[in-house]
Write a structure and sequence with these properties.
31% of the residues lie in helices and 21% in strands. By secondary structure, the protein is α/β, with parallel strands linked by helices. It has two domains: 2-112 and 285-297, Rossmann fold, CATH 3.40.50.720; 114-283, Dihydrodipicolinate Reductase, domain 2, CATH 3.30.360. Helix 4 links the parallel strand 5 (90-91) and strand 6 (108-110).
């Protein structure tokens, strides 16, 4: 039996992890009474008694929680931004080259950001294959459901009296300072952060990340890119599927409620559209965290996941 503690179980990601793990019989969940949920001594005791800890906290609180660990057995899976580009931590995207083995041998796993997951999944294989130069200037736009904004945003969107402006898609991150940009650049291996346009819309969950390429940017054709993805992603949780369009449309909510990621390539030989679709709460958050936990436990990484 693996002892698990979720520090920050009241947040959107923490609640989703808790709900999924509470029905598993190979896990024992360490729970704190509500009055001790923010008590540092109680949290430290829970952290040090756990085999695996999920941190579902703001960045500074996550860093503080790591300092509570006083043993060499407790593994941390941090869902915050705090450690994603820290060399002492493994970036928890097991489908990337050599990441699965690194996760198995690590006690510090940084769970990827939701927007970043799709961008990196699309760009890194092309960099590794040598068909996209690291100095290429890229742009990316990403559609997401409002659940990615946490409890406050969920309440705003689900309020019957919400403003009309919330009924249409809204772009944010306007000043190119989004917290996912650093990992998008460093983990994918590009030299300059992309011009990034995240957009939140009036649907609960789902994500569609798009990267555009011009013929001059790549040393390959559209079929070569499809072949690279097919070869690179051979598992069940990230897969290439080009029969995905819905009559010429592509819904960002198609994989809502699931934990896998679907990659597609559209366009023509002059202008190519790369897309990644998944659930911002699934492969973009709690599903990815549970996948990393499964790997640490030595069980099938799809255990408890929906795909």
């Amino acid at each position: 039996m693996t002892n698990i503690f979720i520090d920050g179980s009241a947040g959107t990601t923490g609640l989703r992890i808790y709900d999924r793990l509470s029905v598993r019989d190979d896990i024992s969940l360490i729970k704190l009474p509500e009055e001790l949920r923010k008590d540092d001594n109680a949290r430290a005791e829970a952290i040090n008694s756990a085999d695996i800890v999920f941190l579902c906290l703001p960045d500074d609180a996550a860093r503080a929680a790591v300092s509570f660990v006083k043993n060499d057995k407790t593994a941390i899976i941090d869902t915050s931004t705090a450690h994603r580009t820290n060399d002492a931590w493994v970036y928890g995207f097991p489908e990337l080259t050599r990441k699965r083995e690194a996760i198995i041998n690590s006690k510090r796993i940084a769970n990827p950001g939701c927007h970043a997951s799709g961008f990196i999944a699309l760009v890194k294989p092309l960099i590794e294959a040598g068909v996209l130069n690291p100095d290429t200037a890229l742009s990316c736009f990403s559609l997401t459901g409002y659940s990615g904004g946490g409890k406050k945003m969920i309440a705003e969107y689900e309020d019957e009296g919400k403003p009309d402006l919330l009924k249409a898609p809204r772009q944010y991150g306007l000043f190119q300072q989004h917290k996912h940009l650093k990992e998008m650049q460093i983990i994918s291996g590009i030299e300059t952060a992309p011009a990034f346009c995240p957009i939140v819309a009036d649907f609960y969950s789902g994500m569609e990340v798009t990267v555009t390429l011009f013929k001059k940017d790549i040393k390959a054709n559209i079929d070569d890119i499809k072949a690279i993805y097919k070869s690179y992603y051979t598992g069940k949780l990230v897969h290439f599927d080009n029969a995905a369009d819905e009559g010429g449309f592509l819904s960002a909510a198609a994989l809502s409620g699931k934990d896998d990621m679907q990659l597609c390539v559209f366009g023509n030989e002059d202008r190519i559209i790369l897309t990644a679709r998944y659930d911002n709460l699934g492969k973009g958050a709690s599903g990815a965290a549970i996948q990393n936990m499964n790997i640490l436990m030595g069980v099938s990484e799809e255990t408890g996941l929906v795909y």
